[in-house]
Every structure is written in C-alpha cells, then in structure tokens.
Sequence to fold (108 residues):
Amino acid sequence: MVDHPSSDWIVDSGAAEHVARDRVGFVEYHQIPSGSKVLYKRNGDNVDVLGIGTYKLGLRGGRALLIHDVLYAPDTRRNLLSTTALLKLGFRLSFKNNDVQIFMGTIF
Fold:
C-alpha cells in the first residue's frame, strides 16, 4: 500500500484514531503540551501524543492520501491507519490478498 518501507502503515480496525510515529509525512502539524493527550496500549502502558496534524500518505501508483487529525506519537511501534476513522468519513475499504484497497466513491 505505501511506497516507502520505513513508513509502513498498519490498517487497524481497533484504532479509533490515526497515529504516526514520525513527523516526516506531516504537511500540517500542531504541537500539543506534553501529557495533555495519551494513547493507551493493550498491555496497560500509555504513550504521549506530542502533536496532531495532516499527514500525506504516499500510495502506490503515485497517488497520495491526505489524512487529517493524525496523532504524532513517536513512542508507538507502528503507524496506524484507523478503519473506523476512514469509514466515518465515507471511505470504503476492500481487503484482498494481504492488501487493502481504499475507495472514496468510485475513486480507488
């Protein structure tokens, strides 16, 4: 799905929000005070969110997806793309052969 292996994203049906662990793809970013927002991990630990913004996710075929309200949490293990958040925006997802296709209307 993503062009660069170092910026792999996991499509996560359990995540309520999109989460990025690096700032490289943010095209708009706002720092938030440390400790004002945390993410809770399944093992009971929490991770500080340091900012929020719009992330430009490069897709195969030269396309890009701008994802708004992405949380910046550098201490997370992976970048997470929330299926819940995408579905609320009207996207449609198709899972096939270990791949995810993202649609908005008829646009793939």
Remarks:
- Confidence is low (pLDDT under 50) at residues 1-6.
- Residues 47 and 75 are 6 Å apart (CA to CA).
- Helices lie at 83-88.
